[in-house]
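[stage:ingest] chain + small molecule (flavin-adenine dinucleotide)
[stage:ingest] validated
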Amino acid sequence: MRTFDTLVVGGGLVGSAIAYGVARRGGSVALIDEGDVAVRASRGNFALVWVHGKGDGMPRYATWTRRSADLWPDFAGALLDRTGIDVVYEKTGGIIFCFDDEEMAERRALLARLKANTEPPGYDYEMLDQGALAGMLPGLGPDLPGGSYCPHDGHCSSLHLLRALHAALLGLGGRYLPERRVTDIRARADSFTVITEQGEVQGGRLVLAAGHANAWLAPKVGLSVPVKPERGQVLVTERFEPMIPLPTSHVRQSHEGTIMIGVSNEDVEFDDRSTVQTMAQMADQARRIFPFLARARIVRAWGCLRIMPPDGFAIYDQSPDHPNAYTVSCHSGVTLAAVHAESLAGWICDGALPDEIACFSAARFARAEAA
Ligand SMILES: Cc1cc2nc3c(=O)[nH]c(=O)nc-3n(C[C@H](O)[C@H](O)[C@H](O)COP(=O)(O)OP(=O)(O)OC[C@H]3O[C@@H](n4cnc5c(N)ncnc54)[C@H](O)[C@@H]3O)c2cc1C
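[stage:predict] done
[stage:export] C-alpha cells:
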C-alpha cells in the first residue's frame, strides 16, 4: 500500500489542474486515473477559454469564470516555464453568432442581464451587426444578422494543456498512477483508502475529480454529485492557412490550421457516437457562417460526453462527514483549469472551501427540490 498526503481521483483536466495546484503547495500527491478506456471529456472538447454568456441564474459563476479567464495568461506561462509545453493559449476575444433577429434580441437581453448582475470586475461585451462582424472575420457569410463579442474569451490546445498539467505534476514530484480504476473508497477519521483493480492507495486528503464517476464515488464520502452526460459532436477539417482570427461559438481554427466545427448538445445518456444527421446539421451551419468551408474536407469527427450538473454550473463540495474529502465537477474544465489550479487547489490545501464558493455546493439541488 502506498501512502500520499493527497489523492486526486481522475486524471482529466479537472483532476490534473487540482493535482498540479496542490503539488505546487508542497506535500506528496498521487493522481489516480482509470486510463484510456475511460469515458473522458478532456480529450474531446472544443478548447475554448470562454466567459461569454455564462452565469445566467448564478452571477457568481460568471465572476468565477471571468476570474479563471483573467488567470489564464499567467497560468499558461507558468506551465510553459515548468514543462516547455506551450498550451497555445490566445486571448483573442470570442464571437457567438445569432442566426435570426429573434436570437439577436434574446442575446442582447441575456448579456445585459449578465452585465447588470455580475460582481466586479464585471462583464464586457458588444452586440455587433453583420457588417461589424465581417470586419473582424473575413470570409463571413452575408446572411447572418450579427452576433456578440466578448473580449475575455480565448482558446488553447486542450490536449497540450492535459499533457502540460501531467508533466508539471511529475516535475513537482507528484505521481501519476494510470490504469487504476477506483472501485471503492474506505473513509476513516484521518485517512482514505482508495481501492483500485491494481491495489490500494492511501491518503490523508481526497479529491474526487473523476468526471462521470463522481456520481457514484461521491456518496462513499458522504457527498452527492448529480451529474448527467450531454453529448457534443465535433468535426475537424483539413488544414488551412490562417483564416479565422478569433474563436467563435461554432467554428474555430486550431494553431495547427485545422478548423473545428461544433458542437451539439444532445441528451443521449452514455452514447458517445457521431451521427450523420447531427454532423450534417453542424456542417450546414458552418457553411452558412463561412461559405469557404463548403470546399473543406472533413478529416475527423467524434462525439464526446460533457459532465453536466443539472443547472450547468460547477459543483464544489467538502464532505461534512469527512472534511478532508472534496468533490469537483464541471462542464467547463478547460476554461476553469486556471482557477482550479490557482485558487481551488489552495483552499483545498488550507482545509476549507470559502464562503465565496459556497453557492457551488450540490446542496443547492436539494434546496431547490424542497422549495
Ligand atoms: C464536445 C465538448 C466540447 C467542450 N468544449 C469545451 C470548451 O470549449 N471549453 C471548456 O472549458 N470546456 C469544454 N468542454 C468541457 C470539458 O471538456 C470538461 O469540462 C472537462 O474535460 C472535464 O474534465 P474532467 O477531468 O472533469 O472529466 P474527464 O475528462 O471525463 O476526466 C475524468 C477522468 O476520470 C477518470 N476516471 C473515471 N472513472 C474513474 C475511476 N473509477 N477511477 C479512476 N479514474 C477514473 C478517467 O480516466 C478520466 O481521465 C467540452 C466538452 C465536450 C464534451
